[in-house]
Every structure is written in C-alpha cells, then in structure tokens.
Amino acid sequence: MLAVVKIAGQQFKVQAGDNLYVPHIEGNTGDKVEFNEVLFLDNNGVISTGSDVKAKVKAEIVEDLVKGDKVIAFKMKRRKGFRKKHGHRTQYTHIKIESIA
C-alpha cells in the first residue's frame, strides 16, 4: 500500500515501515501521531485521489528534534565594505510510519 500524505505543508510518499525526516512536529519521543490529509492512495492497484481518499496514516515519533545541516547565507557588495553573514539549522522530526488505514 502506497500513499502520498501532506505533513506540515510538504508532500511525502509513504509506505508502512518507512522512516522519514519531516519538518518539526510537536510531541515527544514515542508519541503516536496521525495524519489525516492523504492526497493519493494506491491499494494493490486500486487508486483513489482527492476527496475519494478515506485513509489515515499512523506514525510514531522516533526522535523529537533533529537538526539539519548548517546553511550559511552570505551577502556582500564589492568595494563597499558591506558584508552580512546569517546562518541557521532547520529542525526536523524523525518518524516511522506504522500503518495506512
């Protein structure tokens, strides 16, 4: 069974047993989460999309806060002495898909 689910404004293709890093979700390690916005469902060749999909994706939080790679945004104007350096690390949540029902 395959599903496309919308999590925190992004679309993810998931199957039971998959491990994903999604944008940060509120919750602690071991909590169960449920995603209701399923956009596409393929159930052994039977495809349903849009409002026809009546499925929920259940997952468990493996790690509640994982930091991504450091991203540096450096701005500079030549011959003016203008330099600006900003950086950040995006926060993710590691989840494991348990079932699609």
DSSP strand content: over 45%
**Count of DSSP helices?**
0
Rg, please? 19 Å
Specify the structural class.
mainly beta
Q: Any idea how many domains?
A: 1
Unreliable segments (pLDDT under 50, ≥5 consecutive)?
Answer: none
Number of strands: 8
Major sheet: arrangement of strands: 2-1-5-6
Oligomer description: single chain
Q: Shape, please? A: elongated
Proportion in helices: under 10%
Mean pLDDT: 96
Give an overview of the whole structure:
By secondary structure, this protein is an all-beta fold. It has one domain (2-100). It is 0% helix and 69% strand. It contains no helices and 8 strands. Strand 7 (57-77) and strand 8 (82-100) form a beta hairpin.
Name a few traits of the molecule.
single chain; 101 residues; four-stranded antiparallel β-sheet; 8 strands
Please give a quick description of this structure.
The protein has 101 residues and is an all-beta fold.
How is the topology of this model organized?
Elements: E1 2-7, E2 10-14, E3 19-23, E4 32-35, E5 38-43, E6 46-49, E7 57-77, E8 82-100
Antiparallel strand pairs: 1-2, 1-5, 3-8, 4-7, 5-6, 7-8
